[in-house]
Structures
1.
Amino acid sequence: MILESTLKAIELLISLDQEIYTIIFLSLTISILATITASFFGTIIGILISISDFKLKRFTKKIVFTFMGIPPVVLGLVVLLLITGPFDGMNLLFTKSAMYIAQTLLVLPIIIGNIIISSEKTQKKVLETATTLGASKYDKLILLIKEIKPFIFMSVILGFSRALSEVGAVMLVGGNIKNDTRVMTTYIALNNSMGEYSVSIAMGIILLLIAFMLHTLLARFRGDFYD
Amino acid sequence: MKKLIVLLGIIFVFTLSSCQKKELIIVTTTSLENSGLLAYIIPHFEEEYGVFVKIVALGTGAALEMGEMGEADILLVHAYASEVEFINNGYGEKRHNIMYNDFIFVGPTTLSTSTLEETLETISENHDFYSRGDNSGTHKMELSLWNQFDYDVTSFGDWYKETGQGMGSTLTMTSLSQYYTLTDRATYLSMLENLDLVIAYENSVELKNQYGVIKVNPELHNREELYADQFYDWILREDTQALIATYIKYDTQLFYPNS
């Protein structure tokens, strides 16, 4: 079965089937965009939480850490209720935008959580010096971003993996529409339901290959992380 | 790095702007999607009217729910009583029969029973059974069958399990567990090569499976209703009906048009 599926995976890839490539491309695009958005806001929010002192800091951190483990399908449901409720007029349900929103919200707490942890570890030494030199909050933010770069990098990878591999949220708000909102994970789920396991495994292999290639690419930017 | 961001920005805009405006959202049952009929006939509609059709496959119960929320333009479903209720509650503008086929009991071996009553009795006494359990058209049909012969589903023991999944998943599970289940003939036939199941009982009169088309009340949403009208007329049109009749798998016609 596995050998057969591996052959099928190769066959699928070289057959230049446009549908398969559209699915792969959409998966990557949405997950990458969601990860970038979440990383941008997540890093800033994470560092701000870690360097600020406010009343509900402990509580906020608890909330963030809780949401790091939210089941994608539950988050999908929340997004569904939002876009069919308060934002009903925008017709977002069953669109790529809805999938992008869901994945961004899914990745955001992972980035924030990881940044808080790493930033709190680093800041003590760095910030004391910076404060005596009269740094503003903005200066501290920039300084910390520079200091914890490797951790940001790691959080981004974690977040991206979560986005690329989740199926519950995109299935719910995207609807797995052929030639439109179908991504690799929902395509795998569909094939599983039809008993087409070999196509599923083939897509699974492709998904893993893509992740591997991405890491190979990233290793060129940050070789030290992979040594 | 900056180049990369610009590139991704372009892709982002491209992806979002590629959302076509001329589109029609059809929410349908998993059985219609899994049987492959829609993939067979819908391209003809898309070509003729230049409208992109978005097909979302959910159970009939969930499809009607989407209709009530105004998230669908057209519903293709198979639960007559619920459909009439949907129309009467003002959620749907109009409804019409499209086509029918039949439900069948499938399992590891044929039951060699001659009546529906006998079939249900044999299953409930000697076999394990997977129910869809998802409020779909097929699930509603199955419940009405038990009900018809005064069985109380809630009192059933361990032999009766609800999968809570679509027709395709449930058939796959039934095949893997070697249980019995009720399915529409179209989904069963279109998945035949992946299933280790045979027809256990069939009776196309008692187990008729009628599909209907519903145009959702356009007041429930702010999308263009023209395409829904076009589709409604198109699927009931004579040549489309003839097209449905030509959808054949394993030498069997899967749907019988009756608009």
2.
Amino acid sequence: MNFARRKLNIGRMAGALALLTAAWSQPALADKVLRMAHDLSMGGSESLDPLSPVRFWEVNDLLYSRLIRLTEAGEMEPELALSWEPNADATEWTIRLRDGVKFHDGSAVDAEDVKFSLERINDPALESPVTSVLGMIQSVEVIDPLTARVVLSTKHAGLPILLTDYRVRIIPSGSGDTIASSGIGSGPFKLDEYDPEGTTRLVANPDYWEGAPKLDSIEYVAIPDADARIQALLGGQLDFSRIAPEQEPLFAGRSDFVLSEFPAGGWFGLVFRTDTEPFTDPRVRKAVRVAVNREEMAKLMTGEGHATVTCDNPVKANDPYRADIVCPQDIDLARKLLAEAGYPDGISFDLHTSNLETGMVRFAEVYQQQVAPAGIKVNIVMAPSDGYWDDVWMKETVVVTSWDERPADQILNEAYRSGSSWNESYFSNPEFDALLDKARASLDFAEARQAMVDAQVMLFEAGGTLIPYQQNIQFAYKKSLDGIRPVIEDQMRWHLVDKTEE
Amino acid sequence: MLKLILQRFGAACFTLAFIAIVVFGAVELMPGNACTAYLGRDAKGAKLESCEKRLGLDRPAFERFGEWAGRLAQGDLGESVRRGKPITELVGWRLRNTIVLAVTALLFGIPIAIGLGVLAALRRDRPVDILLSTTAIFAMTIPEFVSATLLILVFSIGLGWAAGVVTVSYKAPVLDLLANSILPAVTLTLVLTAHILRMVRSSVIDVLESEYVLMAHLKGVPFGRIVWRHVLPNSLLPAISVIGLTMAWLLGGVVVVESVYNYPGLGRMAVDAVADRDIPLIQAIALLICGLYILSNLATDVLALMLNPRLRTYRT
């Protein structure tokens, strides 16, 4: 090695050292990084394709924009779409797009991209779960670069609210084969490093149409174990996480953390098959539901104040279509209904549950205790968690079920319409189906809402599903974070979230 | 001796083949199959068909076992249902990480355990010995999820000295991984040190009381020389089998420690695979862990054979 070259190397090293010292001495210029965890629920196949069955939803929320989104109050507001107008019978919707929005690669968001992104939903090769929500989209016509017309196969007045689904994102036209790893959207953050089993890194998109994000970057770390996630949060390795009610006490006395909580739409329920004796009689179905003390059950299952009492209506608490029903425990009514139906000495049945999800067995046990005074004798049968959805659910007469939050139109059609493939209680009522059709066909909100409310009341009177409460979502995050709102992550305005000095 | 080693090796291969049959058979006996387990509520119609076709589940079990075993013999573990990647690739990195953690714990644990074990034996029933032995019993009996949680509580959440959970990628360079893994390494070191320490202590005490050591004393051999030349080599033999067992445990069974610390090793992958009902992956990991267990037992046996003159000259 000659001398000149060695000198050069020393010079380089000195330069690097100087840079390093500079980086050390100026922590104030440090990047504002928000660190969060995901639970690796797709086992490392987390896909950046928003329509994929194994979508990486936490990250996709940040990468992509939707046409329409919800406000904190649950109302629709424009995102990429500026307006949405139906034709007279709600079979076609004309969507006008915001001008000047750009994808991360610099290309403009136009009607071609909307056509591509929406028509993709029903591509059978994708096996997208969104097909069950937006399967009525027949085609999308491009009117001009900023106008698209969505043509439906049936009347649907509720299309705009279904377009707020967290999976219905606009991606560049023709990017179907690359989107799963490229992540090119028009959201507030851009993909920097994609590593679902390690740390996925996103950096701020300075050209975001609503203004540049306040954070410099966001990191998503894979931590499957729930306790490990909380420990990472408490130890300062994470800034934000969802928590379960039983983890709340861990934050007692930690003034550097903020806890927040808001009503959501996930629930455990009991399904009584309406096509099987004795539950073919609506009086029996009502008896086994009104005998429940829902308030107490919610408290036993989730603790004080972590759930919204629900009267068997699957629509979440802050959904504009939710019906207001009151349903106190009524043992006498239950006895009376059973006697009228021909069971003066009460009934007994097997209730199938499993350790599939935490709480599913406890749920059955609380039910068993609560309805016993009404002469309802429940025999709990433990089923193996493997194959529960396959061999027990929709097969046995009485089973515990579990659902995630869905918009009103979606859950009512998916779980209760005659013949629907996930109609777990085999509920079949032409009047009920007619109400759902009416809601879909009606362009007047009050009228559509009334039809949905009537449908929910019908479920409370004659349905075969007990939904005693819906569980809240709880967040815990560092006090230094600013702009975290009590809304589900996909409705959060992440570009407004900021990190102040600790 | 070669014959003895070959015998052991043959037995190991036989055990592994037997385990392969059990692992495959257990899955066949279960109701449903890999596809119904994986798809859950969606296990019907076209989705189920395409999954079963992809995994070849439409063919008879005998045929599939032959193929599976054949590929196994060539080192191909098949493809994960959930992850859609070759299992060899998924498991390779995890195996590396588990080995990194195990080796780190052993490197620190073995010298500490032998040193302290000999010290305790030489100071038998004195305060040092009582302190060491009691601590060791505590370290052995406290379950790892308790000690792990306590360590996180004190050193990560309380003092902020070390990272509480591992946040680096499973593919991170070894040094980055280790920098993030101080607490898991300490947890494992604690447990294995305790086990080995107690073994070393009792066998050193045994040897110290033996007749040839007494003889050496009577001949006037200095105490230091007795310990170094005569006691230590003879008392480490039982320690080797404990170290072998510990290594097998480290390579296969640190599921709890890996989950608590989010360490990207084989144990956590096993838990994730079970949670996802990814049966081909579970089968592969089960087999791999059994293989590692058998391998470390074999290594211990051979090492013990070579160190023990009585076993060395043993004829069958």
